[in-house]
Specification:
single chain; 7 helices
Length: about 230
């Protein structure tokens, strides 16, 4: 009896809708794990870059500091320092343009804020996939269970065998679909929460770094720590 029920039996005996639900859950699971793994690697790299960013302030010149930051590929802190440098140089060199109405402090602040917004969008890319999977996978699995129970009861009604042996197997088998939906949703939700926490740490460090960069580019010195 134990060999008569299970995922293989659901797949072999299921109709098009049942197979479509199973394939959908499989795609959701693969997509969520791909996002979790790739984004976790990115967050780890950005955290390492955040630690290295402190070395920027222990160099003897701006060029040397930028060189230190540029050694790590896709370094958001290097991009932020570059934006601040370019904004400062552009404001000092440009004449008779609209942004001349802004002083250098406002101009650098605006440039750094735009750079942080772009980096934030980059960090948050892919998280919508995890949020969508985490919120919809349980309902996809539940729909599979309801669909399976419906067909199981119809089959039992046609055969006229309403004993516990005839009901427990097919109905219990369809509950696997709900379990599969939860198995897909739980890692997606946990991965989403972990990545959001990691991104918040990186963004907080970027804001702190940008504050120090603003002080350096405007006054020529980093804000001293209390």
């Amino acid at each position: 009896m134990s060999e008569s029920f299970g995922l293989s039996h659901i797949w072999n005996e299921g109709d098009v809708v049942t197979k479509l639900i199973l394939v959908t859950l499989l795609i959701m699971s693969v997509a969520s794990w791909v996002v979790i793994v790739l984004k976790s690697i990115d967050v780890w790299k950005h955290k390492q870059s955040a630690q290295v960013s402190e070395q920027f302030w222990h160099t003897t010149s701006l060029a040397e500091g930028l060189s230190v930051l540029s050694k790590r590929p896709n370094n958001l802190f290097f991009a932020l320092a570059q934006v601040g440098q370019e904004a400062t140089e552009h404001h000092q060199a440009a004449q008779k343009q609209l942004h001349d109405r802004l002083d250098i402090s406002d101009w650098v602040t605006r440039s750094l804020r735009n750079a942080i917004d772009d980096s934030t969008s980059q960090l948050q890319s892919g998280l919508a996939v995890l949020a969508s999977i985490g919120s919809t996978a349980p309902f996809v699995g539940l729909f599979g269970t309801v669909w399976g129970i419906y067909h199981a009861l119809v089959s039992i009604g046609l055969t006229g065998n309403a004993g516990i042996e005839a009901v427990a197997g097919p109905v219990g088998e369809t509950l696997i679909m709900t379990a599969l939906g939860l198995a897909v949703a739980i890692p997606a939700v946990l991965g989403y929460n972990a990545l959001v926490r990691g991104n918040k740490f990186v963004i907080a460090r970027m804001n702190r770094f940008a504050h120090d960069l603003h002080a350096y580019y405007v006054t020529g010195a980093r804000v001293s720590k209390p």
